[in-house]
Amino acid sequence: MQNILEIESLRKYYGKNNSQTKALDGITFQVMQGEFLGIMGSSGSGKSTLLNCIATVIRPTGGRIVMQGEEIQHLKGDMLAQYRGQTIGYLFQNFELLDNLTGRENILLPLSLHSVPEAESDRRLEKLASYLEVVDVLDKFPSQMSGGQKQRIAAARALILDPAMILADEPTGALDSKNAKALMEKMTGLNREQKATILMVTHDCNAASYCKRILFIQDGVIFHELRRDIPRESQQAFYERILKVIAQLGGGSANVL
Length: 257
Description:
alpha/beta; Rossmann fold; six-stranded mixed beta sheet
């Protein structure tokens, strides 16, 4: 198994001199092809900044981000658009669906922007809608959907171009526990059955327990790493290890989550 993403000495600083904030302060790690990696940390720890640097929403101060052998800071024009549209798929906490489009239209939008033929678009839509169980809401508008349905429509949109990596930013943050569990089971299935590579930022220990590996970030640096001993370690056992790490880092989840 080879690296799909390499982060090397990544830095993102805001402000100058004494008022400087180091959102990321030299982070280095790799993501393997087919891995499900979680990023956890307190508010302001740098985890969302990290995800946005990988998505090219934020330009880092220094360091390197290499996706599939290509240093993404050097991408421009059509190459940058292709990276944002096809190499990565972004799953947002608050869905970010277009209210005036149906579920079907929201999912198909990336395909139309990249001129994918109609027959191929329909094939991909049918496959994803069936897997994510959103066939019955394809012709509804977001205002007519539950939170779980919206997030699964958003997931289908993120996946429709078959990206090399899925970036998920607090994907269960706006969901109740039932819908959060359903979404995580679908994401786990995509990782296990279709070898989808997923990098997920989350504050939710339950969601994190579905990952194969977790990096904990504090003050812009990685301070701890957990690996799930698959298949011997159960999800419950991994969840309990996550809680122990959090309890050791400042006396409780409030300080970490």
